[in-house]
Design a protein that fits this description.
883 residues, Immunoglobulin-like, five-stranded mixed beta sheet, globular
Length: 883
C-alpha cells in the first residue's frame, strides 16, 4: 500500500502509514519526574491550549470503525507531564512530538485519565512553548451512538454524519474538546470513490487513489470550536440551493433519489440568509453552506459551521404536504442558519452560557418568521416559545438560564426550554421595551466586538447597555441567573375624578413542592394595550407592586400584550371584559390569555371552568397556540375526570370542538393553510379519542387499516395522529397487524410512528405484548422507546412498571446510553409512587447522566403531578356537576 499523505495549506508533508501495534499505556514512570494528576471535573488544565488541528480520517460508511491521524499545534504555558486531552472510546496506536527545525522527535506514551481523558507523557516533561503533537489512532462509528461519527441507513445505503455537540468531538479525535478553544481546522478524508463527502469548508483537492478510493482535502476553516467540526459521507444527491447575495454557494444534500422533495427548502435558504444578513449587518461569514439530511434521524438539527444537519422532515417536504410542515421546517432552518452568527461566529465561552447560542437563534428565527413568513405564522411563533418557557417554570426542579456546569448531566440539562424558550422570550420582552432599533444596535455591537472569538452573558449585556444608553445589568441579569418567573396580578381601577390606572402586583409563579416566596421579585417590564392607542403602555415593575397610568378616560378594557416572561392573573372584572371582547384581541394576546389560564388552573388559582368556558371562543378564533394549549388542558383533565362525570366532560369537548374537528377531518386538502395541519396533530385526535367521536374514530381505523398495506394512503403530516387514534379505538385486529409489521419496517420515521401508536392501546395485555416485541432485539433502537410514552392510566402504568421491574437490567444493556432517560419510570398516581422510587434507586442512580440529582428531580416532578391531580380532580368534579 502506498503511504497516505496529508498536505496542509502550507504544503507541510507528514507521512501516515498503516497503524502500528497499539502503544503501551503508562502505569508508572522510571524516572524521577512525577506524573501530574488527571484533571477533575469537565475542564482540562488551563496551562495548555490548541492553536490548530490537521486531521486525516479514513472512513467508510460500510464499516463500524475508522482510522485517524491528527497533528495538533499546542501552546504550553508550563511544562507538561503529561499533556491532558479529551478522548472517548479511542484506541491510540502511536503518539509523538514532531521535530521542529533540526530537532528530533520524542515518543509519547498514554497515561490513563478516565473515561473521557487521556494523558500523553514523554520520558521527561516537555514545554513550555509551542509543540506539534501527532497521534495515530482508531475509533468507532455505528448506528447505536448519538454523537461522534454516526452511521445511518436509508433504502439499503449507509451514510456517515457527525454530531458533536456538546462532547462528541472526543469520539473522533483526541482534542481540547471545550467551546472556548476556537482554532482553525483542516481535514483530509479518505473515502470510497462512489460517495459524496462534505465538511465545514469547500474542497481544496480531490485525488483518485490506486485502490479505488478518493482522498479529499478541505480548505482550512476559520477559528471554530471542536463541537462545530463536521463532515458527511455517503451516496448523497446534491441539490443546488443557489448562492447568497455575495456569491456563497448553497446546496441541500439528500439521500439518494430524494432530490425532488428538497425543492421547497432549496428555494428558501437564500431568503433566510438575506434576512439575517440585513439584521446583523454582517454577510454570511463562511465560504459555503450545505444543508444535510441525516437519514433516520430521530429529530432536531445541528448548526455545524457551513454544514448544517437536519432530521429528514425539516428538509424533505413532498409537494403533497401542507403548510404546517413547511412552517415548522422554515423555522428550523432559520434557527440553524442564525447559529452561523450566534454560536459560530461568536461562541459561548463555556456551557453555562449556551443561551447565547440557542436563545438568540430561537429569537432570530422568530424574527425571520414574522418578517418573511407572516402568512404561515400570524405572529404566533414567539407566543409558542413563551408558553413553553413558562410551562417549564412550574417544574419543581426548574433551573435558571445560567447555572454552574460541573458535570456532564449539567450540560445535558442546559439544553431545555429554559435555555431556548425562556432566553428567547426575555430577548423579545426587552426588544419590546427598548425598541427594535436599540435591540438591533446592541446585537450588532455584540457580534462585531466578539466575531471569531468567544463571549459571555456579561459581554452581551454590556453591548446592549451601550446601545440603550444605560446599564441594563441590574434589570437583565436577574432574569438569567434566578430560577422561576413572576406571576403578575392585574386589575383596572377607575375612580371618579382620578386617572385610570392598571394596578400591578408580582410574586413567583407557584410551584408545587416549593414554599411560596412572595418576596421574590423581578424587574419586570409589563406592557398593556389600550383600545384605540397605537403604542402599548409600559412600566418596569421593580417592586412587589406598581401601576401603569392610563389617563383620564376609563377604557373599556386593557389587555396584556402577551410578550413578556411572566404569567398574568387578571382580576375577575378584567377577565370578564376580555372574554366578552375576545374578537377585539389580537392573536398573540389571545394566545397569552389561554396559556396563562391553563397554567393558573393547573396551579389551583383558577377553577377548570375558567378554561372550559373559553373553549368555544378558542374554537371560533382558530388561533393555533390557543387551540394547542386547550388540547393539552383537555388531555390533562382527561386523566383525572371521574367515570361518573365523563359523559359531561365529553359533551363539553364535542360542544366546543366537535364540529371543527369533523370539518377538518384526517386527510389534508389541496391548498390548505397552516391551521388544518395543526388541528390534525392536536385537536382532531383529542376529539376522536377523548371526546369519543364515533365518526372520527371509524375513519381513523379505516385509514390505518388501508395504510398497513399501502403506505401512500397517509402523508407524514397526518400519519402519526391517524395511527394513534386508530390503535386507541381498535378492538385488537389493527394492533396485531401493526405489531407483526413494525420490526421489519425499513423507514425509521415510520417505525417510530408505529411504535408510538402501539403504545396508545388501551388494553393492558396488548401493551405488554408491544413492550416485549419492541425490546426483543439484542440492540433496541431509540425509536422503539416511544411505546413507553403512552402509559398514563393506572392500569397501563402498572403494565409499564411491571415490565421495567422484570426487564430493566437487560433493557439498559440493549438501549444506547444516551437514551436511558427515555425509559425512566414515571407515574402520576400516588399508589405507584414508591415502586417508581425503588426502580430509580436500583437502576438509574448509578447512571452518570442521571445520578441522585436526576432521581430527585424525577420524584419531585411526580410528587407535583400527584398533588396537582388531586386538587384538579376535585375542582373538575365540582364544575362538571354544575353543568
Amino acid at each position: 500500500m502506498q503511504p497516505r499523505v496529508i498536505r496542509s495549506v502550507r504544503q507541510r508533508r507528514y507521512e501516515l502509514w498503516s497503524p502500528p501495534p497499539p502503544i503501551a499505556v503508562a502505569t508508572s514512570t522510571a524516572n524521577s519526574h512525577v506524573l501530574q494528576p488527571a484533571p477533575e471535573g469537565l475542564r482540562l488544565p488551563r496551562t495548555a491550549r490548541p492553536l490548530g488541528y490537521r486531521l486525516a480520517l479514513d472512513v467508510d460508511p460500510a464499516n463500524e470503525t475508522f482510522a485517524g491521524r491528527v497533528v495538533i499545534d499546542v501552546e504550553l504555558d508550563e511544562a507538561a507531564h503529561p499533556l491532558w486531552l479529551n478522548a472517548t472510546n479511542l484506541t491510540i496506536d502511536s503518539a509523538r512530538i514532531l521535530p521542529r527545525d533540526a530537532g528530533t522527535e520524542r515518543p509519547l506514551r498514554v497515561v490513563p485519565g478516565g473515561p473521557d481523558v487521556i494523558g500523553l507523557a514523554a520520558d521527561t516533561p516537555f514545554g513550555p512553548g509551542r509543540v506539534q503533537i501527532e497521534i495515530v489512532y482508531r475509533g468507532v462509528q455505528n448506528d447505536r451512538q448519538s454523537d461522534g461519527i454516526i452511521r445511518r441507513a436509508d433504502a439499503g445505503d449507509w451514510y456517515l454524519i457527525t454530531d458533536l455537540e456538546p462532547l462528541g468531538a472526543r469520539r473522533i479525535l483526541p482534542s481540547f474538546d471545550e467551546p472556548a478553544f476556537k482554532v482553525p481546522w483542516q481535514l483530509e478524508l479518505t473515502v470510497p470513490a462512489a460517495t459524496l463527502a462534505a465538511s465545514n469548508t469547500p474542497i481544496e483537492s480531490d485525488v483518485q487513489l490506486d485502490d479505488g478510493r478518493r482522498r479529499i482535502t478541505f480548505a482550512p476553516t476559520p477559528p471554530m470550536p471542536s463541537y462545530l467540526f463536521a463532515f458527511a459521507v455517503g451516496p448523497f444527491d446534491a441539490v443546488d440551493a443557489g448562492a447568497t447575495r455575495k456569491g456563497v454557494p448553497m446546496r441541500i444534500l439528500v439521500p439518494r433519489g430524494r432530490s425532488a422533495d428538497a425543492a421547497f427548502m432549496a428555494r428558501e435558504s437564500g431568503r433566510i440568509i438575506a434576512a439575517l444578513e440585513d439584521y446583523t449587518g454582517i454577510d454570511f461569514p463562511y465560504a459555503k453552506l450545505d444543508h444535510v439530511v441525516v437519514p433516520g434521524s430521530p429529530g432536531g438539527a445541528m448548526e455545524n459551521v457551513g454544514l448544517i444537519t437536519y432530521a429528514p422532515e425539516f428538509l424533505l417536504i413532498p409537494e403533497r404536504e401542507g403548510d404546517d410542515l413547511r412552517r415548522i421546517a422554515l423555522w428550523f432552518m432559520a434557527h440553524e442558519v442564525a447559529h452561523q452568527w450566534f454560536g459560530n461566529l461568536v461562541t459561548l465561552a463555556w456551557w453555562d452560557d449556551i443561551w447565547l447560542n440557542e436563545a438568540f437563534s430561537n429569537w432570530a428565527a422568530d424574527r425571520v418568521m414574522t418578517g418573511l413568513y407572516e402568512a404561515y405564522d400570524n405572529g404566533l411563533v414567539a407566543s409558542a416559545g413563551r408558553w413553553l418557557a413558562l410551562d417549564g417554570e412550574a417544574n419543581p426542579g426548574v433551573r435558571a438560564v445560567r447555572e454552574p456546569i460541573v458535570q456532564v448531566s449539567d450540560i445535558d440539562r442546559a439544553f431545555d426550554s429554559i435555555t431556548y424558550d425562556k432566553g428567547a422570550t426575555i430577548l423579545h420582552m426587552y426588544e419590546q421595551v427598548l425598541g427594535v432599533e436599540v435591540m438591533r444596535d446592541g446585537v450588532r455591537t455584540y457580534l462585531e466586538r466578539h466575531r471569531w472569538r468567544t463571549a459571555t452573558a456579561a459581554d452581551f449585556i454590556a453591548a446592549l447597555s451601550e446601545a440603550a444608553g444605560r446599564d441594563l445589568a441590574p434589570s437583565l441579569a436577574p432574569w438569567l441567573d434566578r430560577p422561576g418567573a413572576p406571576l403578575v396580578s392585574m386589575s383596572v381601577t377607575c375612580k371618579p375624578g382620578q386617572p385610570a390606572v392598571v394596578e400591578l402586583a408580582q410574586r413567583r409563579i407557584p410551584v408545587v413542592g416549593l414554599a411560596n416566596d412572595d418576596t421574590m421579585i423581578w424587574p419586570t417590564p409589563v406592557c398593556v394595550r389600550v383600545p384605540g392607542e397605537a403604542k402599548p403602555r409600559c412600566t418596569e415593575l421593580a417592586g412587589q407592586t406598581g401601576r401603569i397610568q392610563l389617563g383620564e378616560r376609563c377604557p373599556s378594557f386593557v389587555v396584556p400584550t402577551g410578550r413578556g416572561h411572566f404569567q398574568t392573573e387578571l382580576s375577575p372584572p378584567l377577565r370578564a371584559a376580555l372574554v366578552r371582547d375576545w374578537t377585539r384581541l389580537d392573536a398573540v394576546e389571545q394566545a397569552a390569555i389561554v396559556t396563562d389560564t391553563a397554567a393558573l388552573v393547573e396551579a389551583g388559582r383558577l377553577a377548570p371552568g375558567a378554561m372550559l368556558e373559553l373553549l368555544p371562543k378558542i374554537g371560533r378564533s382558530q388561533n393555533r397556540i390557543a387551540i394547542q394549549a386547550a388540547v393539552i388542558a383537555i388531555q390533562r383533565y382527561d386523566l383525572v375526570v371521574e367515570p361518573t362525570e365523563r359523559p359531561r366532560f365529553e359533551r363539553e369537548i364535542q360542544r366546543s370542538f366537535g364540529k371543527l374537528a369533523r370539518a377538518t377531518g384526517w386527510k389534508p386538502r389541496p391548498g390548505e393553510a397552516v391551521l388544518p395541519g395543526v388541528l390534525r396533530r392536536t385537536l382532531v385526535p383529542a376529539v376522536a379519542v377523548i371526546g369519543r367521536d364515533d365518526r372520527l374514530n371509524r375513519d381513523a381505523r379505516e385509514l390505518t387499516r388501508r395504510w398497513l398495506t399501502d403506505r401512500s394512503v397517509l402523508g407524514s403530516e397526518e400519519r402519526n395522529a391517524v395511527l394513534r387514534a386508530g390503535i386507541a379505538s381498535d378492538d385488537g385486529a389493527l394492533f396485531d397487524q401493526m405489531l407483526a409489521l413494525v420490526m421489519a419496517e425499513p423507514d425509521i420515521a415510520v417505525r417510530r410512528a408505529m411504535a408510538r401508536a402501539l403504545g396508545q392501546t388501551n388494553d393492558p395485555a396488548r401493551l405488554r405484548r408491544a413492550f416485549e416485541t419492541l425490546t426483543s432485539p439484542s440492540t433496541v433502537a431509540p425509536e422503539m422507546l416511544g411505546a413507553f410514552s403512552g402509559a398514563r392510566t393506572p392500569a397501563l402504568t402498572e403494565v409499564a412498571l411491571a415490565f421495567l421491574e422484570q426487564q430493566l437490567p437487560q433493557l439498559l444493556e440493549k438501549v444506547p446510553a444516551d437514551w436511558h432517560g427515555a425509559i425512566m419510570p414515571w407515574t402520576c398516581h400516588a399508589s405507584q409512587r414508591e415502586r417508581v422510587a425503588v426502580i430509580l434507586d436500583a437502576h438509574f442512580v448509578a447512571l452518570r447522566d442521571v445520578g441522585k440529582a436526576g432521581r430527585d428531580r424525577q420524584l419531585a416532578r411526580m410528587d407535583a403531578c400527584i398533588a396537582e391531580s388531586d386538587a384538579l380532580r376535585a375542582s373538575l368534579r365540582t364544575y362538571l356537576r354544575s353543568r
